[in-house]
UniProtKB/TrEMBL annotation:
NCBIfam families: PRK05218.1 (NF003555). Residues 506-556 are annotated as: Disordered. Pfam families: HATPase_c_3, HSP90. It comes from Enorma massiliensis. Residues 22-177 form the Histidine kinase/HSP90-like ATPase domain. HAMAP family: HSP90. Residues 541-556 have a biased composition (Basic and acidic residues). Homodimer. It is found in: Cytoplasm. It comes from the Bacteria. Molecular chaperone. Has ATPase activity. The keyword Protein biosynthesis does not apply. GO terms for molecular function: ATP binding; ATP hydrolysis activity; ATP-dependent protein folding chaperone; unfolded protein binding. This is Chaperone protein HtpG.
Length: 677
């Protein structure tokens, strides 16, 4: 027996017990090696006229023997001599495939596609096998040789027999291991079935370029005997048939023009276990410093667990048609976690187990390109298939909003124009861009209202007051909306028609355009303003003057109402939002960054009842033109402090109800109503 070198022994132990975390990939590694051997023969036949190889005969064969507990992977590739067995299998981490690729780097072109370049894939067999035999006959040689090892101390190389060129890798499986200490055992017998091996082949090696064949069991009806009577029942028999298990040609390698959408739909549904067709299909091939193929799908519906902690994002990563990772999370940003698909690249640097990726610039470059492709496709759907986009946004819009919030507004430029909100004025979903384009001249902010119900929001005094002035209000009904807007801080409407400061500048621009000049554009920075917080600065100069005069004239009234309400409000003031007799008598607004809706969202959270939770700075705004204000002023003039306290409490609780918030003391509210009745 030839001994493994000490360092090789350590590496073998490390690899079997540590590097590979998923035992079932052993078959993927052996098939990859077999594909490399066939590739080498195919390449040499293209460069050496003396080699006569029928490419149609090149294949890989997988078989099993349940009684002997063996699995065999055979190929009719280039094979190995005794020296090559010693060199490639006797020294762990030596890769014959890598050496071959390096030697032929200048001439190989697309004729050869070497998968196994890491030199340790073969040894993954010892994760499931207690003994491995490699019977190999090199092309052009008369004799075969047998390499054999138990993966512990060393190996032997002896003369052997094989009918033709190629290699057989024969695995004798380990004994089943019972569970202990509550941990499940290991059932190696599970690999000794036709179904299990077919499943591993289609899952990991479905797109290897050569046929992977197995003898499979089929059933057929026996011929009916000539003397059978009328009561004859059909009889069936099993028979063996050679079947090609893999599909060989990946759909993502084909040009999009050569694939019908129904084929993409079937691939998506069968691969990703969905019963609906995808909403969008994105297929592209990248060339240059990095070369890869990508096939991406936007689902037609949201997975039931999309927003659960158990949901795993990621794209299936292939290298040379062999699956490396089922879900590579690094290829997708969190806000596009719903996208499914495949990326296939020979250029991505893998570690020796092929199970995890090195975090390098190659991977980040692919991820950036994929992100841009998804964004561009969603923009195209938004602009050219609005009905489909609105359905998409209903399913996945929350994630896009959270993407802006979670990056503290860092992704606002990329994602902002993908957002949709309900327009109170237009009565339909609009983008921020469409809102900006419809703004009257002079509007400098995007106005929005946040709540849990669109109908209730549209009737709120703070909304109707803004609408009455001719400005639109976006009605936001998801809990993430206001947090998203606060993270964005502003919306930049790019390339909007330029607004000129005076008539002379406008006329000069119009003349220039008449002479053939391009229309001038500008980027407008629009603040995002909640209509229920802060000063919207919508009042005219006359309205501002009236409000100042009313504030001075009735300062005693406001002080009395503030005293009656105590720390429920920061102050009582004349409203610049409510200015008509037909509008509400009062409304609740807030100062500072926290709105009433955000306070409600925080209270619904896991720490909603915790001490120290931030609270809103509430302001009771009064409509100075409403008849109720006249009665309040009369009560103040009469010195009726009880009536002022009654009215203050009633107006405050009523304003809370309009906001969808129950009064702190519903009984007291009811008693105040009864007193007035």
């Amino acid at each position: 027996m030839r001994k493994f070198k000490t360092e090789s022994k350590k590496l073998l132990d490390l690899m079997i017990n540590s590097i590979y975390t998923n035992k079932e990939i052993f078959l993927r590694e052996l098939i990859s090696n077999a594909s490399d051997a066939v590739d080498k023969l195919n390449f040499k036949s293209l460069t050496d006229d003396s080699m006569q190889v029928d490419q149609d005969d090149l294949s890989i064969r997988v078989s099993f023997d349940r009684d002997a507990r063996t699995i065999t992977v055979s190929d009719n590739g280039i094979g190995m001599t005794a020296d090559e067995l010693e060199k490639n299998l006797g020294t762990i981490a030596h890769s014959g495939s890598q050496e071959f690729k390096t030697e032929n780097a200048e001439s190989q072109g697309d004729a050869v596609d070497i998968i196994g370049q890491f030199g340790v894939g073969f040894y993954s067999a010892f994760m499931v096998a207690k003994r491995v035999q490699v019977v190999s006959r090199a092309y052009g040689e008369d004799a075969a040789n047998v390499w054999e090892s138990d993966g512990l101390e060393g190996y032997t190389i002896e003369p052997g027999e094989r009918a033709g060129h190629g290699t057989d890798v024969i695995l004798t499986l380990r004994d089943n291991e019972p569970g202990k200490d509550g941990e499940p055992g290991e059932n190696y017998d599970r690999y000794l079935s036709e179904w299990a091996l077919k499943d591993l082949i289609t899952r990991y090696s479905n797109y290897v370029r050569y046929p992977i064949q197995m003898m499979v069991t089929r059933s057929r009806q026996k011929p009916k005997p000539e003397d059978a009577g009328d009561d004859y029942q059909p009889e069936y028999e099993d028979y063996q048939e050679l079947e090609t298990i893999n599909s060989m040609t990946p759909i993502w390698k084909k040009r999009a023009s050569d694939v019908e959408q129904k084929d993409y739909n079937e691939f998506y549904k069968s691969t990703f276990h969905d019963f609906e067709d995808p909403a969008r299909t994105i297929s592209f091939h990248a060339e240059g410093a990095l070369e890869y193929d990508a096939l991406l799908f936007v689902p037609g519906r949201a997975p039931f667990d999309l927003y659960s902690k158990d949901y795993e994002k990621g794209l299936a990563l292939y290298s040379s048609n062999v699956m490396i990772m089922e879900k590579c999370a690094d290829l997708l940003p969190d806000y596009y976690n719903f996208v499914r698909g495949v990326v296939d690249s020979e250029d991505v640097s893998l570690n020796i187990s092929r199970e995890t990726l090195q975090h390098d610039r190659q991977l980040h470059a692919i991820a950036r390109r994929i992100e841009k492709k998804i964004t561009d496709d969603l923009c195209d759907m938004r602009d050219n298939d609005r009905e489909a986009y609105e359905k998409f946004f209903e399913n996945f819009g929350r994630g896009l909003k959270f993407g802006i919030y979670n990056t503290y507004g860092g992704k606002a430029d990329e994602l902002g124009d993908l957002l949709l909100f309900w327009s109170a004025k237009e009565q339909k979903m609009v983008t921020l861009r469409e809102y900006a384009e419809a703004m009257p001249e002079g509007q400098k902010a995007v106005y929005y209202a946040a709540g849990d119900d669109r109908e209730r929001l549209s009737k709120m005094p703070v909304v109707t007051g803004v609408l009455a002035r001719g400005y639109d209000v976006l009605l936001c009904t998801q809990d993430v909306d206001e947090f998203t807007f606060q993270a964005m801080r502003e919306y930049v409407a790019r390339d909007m028609p330029k607004i000129y400061e005076d008539d002379a500048a406008r006329e000069a621009a119009e003349k220039a355009q008449a002479d053939g000049a391009e229309p001038e554009t500008e980027d407008r920075h629009l603040e995002l303003k909640n209509v229920a917080t802060g000063d919207l600065d919508l009042a005219s100069e006359d309205e501002k003057k009236e409000a100042e005069e009313a504030t001075k004239e009735h300062s005693d009234l406001f002080d009395a109402m503030k005293e009656a309400l105590g720390d429920k409000v920061e102050k009582v003031a004349v409203s610049s939002r409510l200015v008509g007799e037909g509008e509400a008598p009062a409304c609740i607004t807030t100062e500072g960054p926290l709105s009433l809706e955000m306070e409600k969202v925080l209270k619904r959270g896991p720490e909603g009842e915790a001490e120290g939770l931030p609270k809103t700075e509430r302001v009771l705004e009064l409509n100075a033109k409403h008849p109720v204000f006249t009665k309040l002023a009369a009560a103040q003039d009469a010195g009726d402090s009880e009536k002022i306290a009654l009215y203050a409490g009633l107006l405050y609780d009523q304003a809370l109800l309009v906001e969808g918030i129950l009064p702190e003391d519903p009984v007291a509210f009811s008693q105040r109503v009864c007193e007035l009745m």
